[in-house]
Description:
The protein is of the alpha+beta class. It has one domain: Thrombin, subunit H, CATH 2.40.10. Helices cover 11% and strands 24% of the residues. It contains one helix and five strands. It has one helix at residues 71-81; strands at residues 14-15, 26-30, 43-45, 51-59, 65-70. A five-stranded antiparallel sheet has the order 1-2-5-4-3. The longest helix is centred in the last third of the chain and has 11 residues, at 71-81. The two termini are 22 Å apart.
Amino acid sequence: MRGGIAALSPQTGESKADDAAFGGWTHALVAPTPGIPGDSGSAFLDRDGHALGTLSTLGFALPIVNNIGDIAHELAYARAHSGIAGLRLVLGTEPFKSNRLRRI
């Protein structure tokens, strides 16, 4: 839906204060453009390039907020319930293309 327009693929965003009611499972992020259909599950990285989480939902407020699932909570849940022995986060096999990378 972004039509390959690099300007619609933000490079940075601003993290907002986490809501304690969510117990650390989600982080709010405001970016120049919100997530759109097809972006769900996209990786989000911190300023050092470490995995932070995945785009899960949008918060409908002004500005629109991207809600990012916390990767540590997601992995702990998957380890506890998936039955996959040795489940862990590993380095990717392909470099990120800079015009598609979202850093917060």
